[in-house]
Specification:
The structure holds 2 protein chains of 2 kinds. Chain A is built from 3 helices and 7 strands; from the N terminus they run H-E-H-E-E-E-E-E-E-H. By secondary structure, chain A is an alpha+beta fold. Chain A is elongated and about 80 Å long. Chain A starts with a helix and ends in a 13-residue tail after the last helix. In chain B, helix 8 crosses helix 11. The chains are: A alpha+beta, B alpha+beta.
């Protein structure tokens, strides 16, 4: 094998080795960090184990928000208008958090069946409904007329 | 009437760009001088008519013409004038017009600053950009015309601009980001023109380099502005969230960074030719992907525009044709490029190759994480999301590896650097950075911190290695001053950009590890201590702005017994749209930011709020600014102009024209 051929092979091997390490790492990181998405109905039917990190999308049920007077704790109900999930969150809610508004919560269920949200997301554009919330309402057959959606859903 | 003129200008621009996409390229192919000479006038025409179109839209906003649907959706009579003007890019249609106009601006500058390049090459570059802009304008007219009217009954008043957008960040961030994004189309067009002509020599790299550097510098600023804006506007105290819409600019930036380094090898050593072309295509694809993700509404994100399916398919079409077409052309022409491997493992070429591999791998893993939820859903019908932990797990170690090489690269030499020389050069650098990294955190924090130590070692490694390189270069000159004067603009550009990397690294790492935050409920007169600062709520009052009402709290901050500052966080309700919005109060400093966001009022004047102390957060953006200045300096190097003239003279002799005729397909 000629010297420059050998060098080219060396470089190619080096790049290939780098790539495979990177791909391995990437797949590992991916498998560790996937947050599955559930609808309130799926949660109510017991598809989720306590402690498993998930996302839930739904609407904030009208009249369900109770915030503590002396702390940042807040309780509300996320619903797809077929089933409800009680949510507990400690922290400041996003600007657009309102009753009847679509939200996405991240966190896990505790043993009492209350969802402890580590993050509550509400969208900036009021007319824009996040695909997750839309999917949840579609699945429960309670999507409002004319909700903006994305292609393919 | 004016909006119809805008629409009409768009149609004229479409016609001109169709000619621009056809004639000059055909002219270059068949050697028709008249068609070749059409490139510049047609470009100017496209620019003028797009300029007229965007002015017409701005006029509709300023005159509150709510019969135009886009204006009615994004403006309001109460909106302050500066936001009326900038609401032009406050939604999908207008921002796409701005995007297209910016491409026309880049095209015009290519037309102006290309006098020293061969005419047929310029014709091809402008022709390729003409095809691209034709696609954009067609998309606009077909699916998202900003001049569409509401007939027969226009609303009396507009729906108002999204409250989160009523901010200086919105005035600056989108235009800068677009400008940088679109700039990579120019580098792409250079690459495609080179493929078309078959002349893949160093001259091509030399011509593209300044354009790539400028586009990269502007993109750097654009991303940094977005990060800064998100930091103070969205109110979660973060500066980067790996949001699906933040990722494509990052992917483009990483590929662009790889590209400007690879172009250096192609220019100086005539190597990595096909790789450089491929990177130019990929960086451009990254910018298109960004548009696609934002405008198709395929991913959940704070940026997502409400969208309709036809747009997504159209953009996918543009994406497929331009990326597929250019990759096909690449596959056909790449074998014609003869590369050589005349370098050793300890050469600068090799270190730059390492830089490229790491950058491309980082870009690819971000790409994977961004699109994975979409693919996963298509396959399994389950919705998932990939959170920041994924991106951090991949990105942080890769960058740390890259930073090691950022130190080595500038000290190495082309072709071969002896290991002994490298070791001699770097041992002192290593020793100095170890000392700084181990001692400095101990003095400041009075305890050992692994995060601070690693960060400081890496940052000082980069900075000291550059310092060593400068002192090497200066030491063999007559005086230090003469030495410093003798170094080129592009060298100083590199120095600044690499120092920028170190500064950003310090900012990003220290903020991530040492920020403190606390959510509290404070009644008037109550205090809370955080990070050595005592925050006291003095009270709150009602406020009224031009188009909003709200509350403003007053907090005093005391540090070591002295009143440091008074902060006034607000909570606003925008009247026209009924949207609430929080306005952070920030006390910015070189070494730390104090940051307060107001939550809800809980009665009796008590407020929930989140307090943050964020050390070194400004360094992130300072680093980006240094990088951008570095990129601009490098682009302004005298030698490009000199070399361009020389290249033009060479090609005038006909040696390269001959090559290009040889490669014409029979």
């Amino acid at each position: 094998m000629k010297a420059h051929r050998r060098k080219r092979l060396g470089v190619i091997l080096f790049v290939a080795a780098g790539l495979s390490v990177a791909i391995g790492l990437t797949l590992y990181a991916l498998s560790q960090n996937i947050d599955l998405f559930y609808t309130p109905t799926q949660v109510a039917q017991g598809e989720v184990n306590a402690g498993q990190r998930i996302r839930i999308g739904g609407m904030v049920r009208e009249g369900s928000v109770q915030s503590a007077a002396d702390s940042l704790a807040v309780r509300f109900v996320a619903t797809d208008y077929a089933n409800d999930v009680p949510i507990y969150h400690e922290g400041i809610l996003p600007d657009l958090f309102r009753e009847g508004q679509g939200i996405v919560v991240e966190g896990s269920l505790d043993n009492a069946g209350v969802f402890r949200a580590s993050r509550v997301l509400a969208k900036h554009d009021e007319n824009y409904m996040s695909p997750e919330v839309k999917a949840a309402l579609d699945a429960a057959g309670t999507a409002p007329e004319g909700a903006v959606t994305r292609p393919g859903t | 009437m004016i909006p119809e003129l805008g629409s009409f200008s768009l149609i004229l621009a479409l016609c001109l760009s169709a000619l621009l996409g056809g004639l000059p390229i055909a002219g270059a192919h068949f050697n028709n001088q008249v068609w070749i000479s059409m490139a510049r006038p047609l470009t100017a025409g496209v620019f003028v008519f797009l300029g007229l179109a965007i002015s017409a839209l701005a006029y509709a906003f300023i005159t509150d013409d709510f019969s135009v649907s886009f204006v009615a959706q994004h403006s309001n009579t109460l909106l302050p004038m500066r936001y009326k003007f900038t609401a032009v890019w406050g939604g999908h249609e207008g921002s796409f017009l701005l995007w297209t106009f910016m491409l026309a601006g880049w095209m015009l500058s290519v037309g102006i600053f290309s006098k020293s390049m061969p005419e047929e090459f310029v014709a091809r570059v402008l022709g390729v950009l003409g095809i691209l802009i034709f696609g954009y304008i067609l998309f606009m007219l077909a699916t998202s015309n900003p001049f569409d009217r509401i007939v027969p009954l226009p609303p009396a008043d507009g729906a108002d601009l999204n409250s989160a957008l009523q901010d200086i960040g919105f005035i600056l961030h989108p235009p800068t980001l677009y400008m940088g994004y679109v700039g990579f189309s120019v580098v792409f067009a250079f690459a495609i023109a080179a493929l078309l002509s078959g002349r893949m020599d160093a001259a091509w790299a030399r011509w593209s380099r300044p354009w790539a550097n400028v586009a990269w510098a502007i993109l750097t600023v654009g991303i940094a502005l977005g990060s800064w804006w998100a930091y103070y506007e969205l109110g979660w105290g973060g500066w980067w969230a790996w949001d699906p819409v933040e990722n494509p600019p990052m992917i483009t930036w990483l590929l662009g960074t790889a590209l400007i380094h690879s172009l250096a090898v192609t220019e100086k050593r005539g190597m990595f030719k096909s790789w450089t072309v491929l990177l130019a295509i990929l960086a451009f694809s990254g910018s298109l992907l960004g548009t696609f993700i934002t405008r198709s509404g395929l991913l959940t994100s704070v940026h997502a525009f409400a969208s309709d399916p036809s747009r997504g398919f159209f953009i996918l079409g543009i994406l497929g044709i331009s990326i597929g077409g250019s990759l096909l052309l690449f596959a056909l022409r790449a074998p014609l490029m003869k590369g050589s491997f005349g370098f050793e493992y300890n050469s600068r070429e090799f270190f730059l190759l390492v830089n490229n591999v790491i950058l491309v791998v980082s870009a690819a893993s971000i790409f994977l994480g961004t699109l994975f939820p979409m693919v996963y859903q298509a396959v399994t019908d389950d919705l998932i999301s990939i959170g920041p932990p994924y991106f951090n797990t991949i990105f942080v170690p890769l960058m740390m590896l890259l930073f090691l090489f950022v130190g080595v690269g500038p000290l190495s030499r082309w072709k071969r650097t002896s290991w002994a020389y490298l070791a001699a050069q770097l041992s002192k650098v290593l020793f100095a950075s170890l000392v700084i990294g181990l001692i400095l955190p101990l003095i400041v924090l009075t305890k050992f911190s692994l995060a601070a130590t690693v960060t400081l070692i890496l940052a000082s490694w980069i900075v000291f290695a550059i310092g060593k390189d400068i002192s090497n270069k200066v030491s063999n000159k007559r005086s230090t001053f003469a030495g410093i004067k003798s170094l080129s603009f592009s060298y100083y550009g590199m120095v600044l950009a690499h120092i920028g990397i170190a500064v950003m690294l310090v900012g990003a790492a220290l903020t991530s590890f040492f920020s403190e935050e606390r959510s509290v409920l404070l009644a008037p007169g109550e205090s809370v201590e955080l990070g050595g600062y005592l925050f006291t709520l003095e009270g709150s009052k009602r406020i009224e702005g031009p188009n909003y009402i709200g509350d403003e709290a007053e907090l005093t901050v005391v540090n070591a017994g002295e009143l440091l500052t008074v902060l006034y966080p607000q909570r606003r309700l925008y009247v026209a749209s009924g949207t609430p919005s929080t306005e952070m109060a920030i006390d910015a400093g070189f070494f730390r930011d104090l940051f307060v966001t107001l939550g809800e009022g809980k009665g009796a004047g008590a407020w929930s709020m989140t307090l943050y102390v964020k050390p070194f957060v400004r360094w992130i953006w300072l680093g980006a600014i240094l990088m951008a200045i570095g990129g601009t300096l490098a682009a302004g190097d005298k030698r490009y102009r000199r070399l361009r003239v020389r290249a033009a003279r060479e090609s005038g002799r006909g040696s390269e024209t001959q090559t290009s005729t040889e490669l014409q397909p029979a």
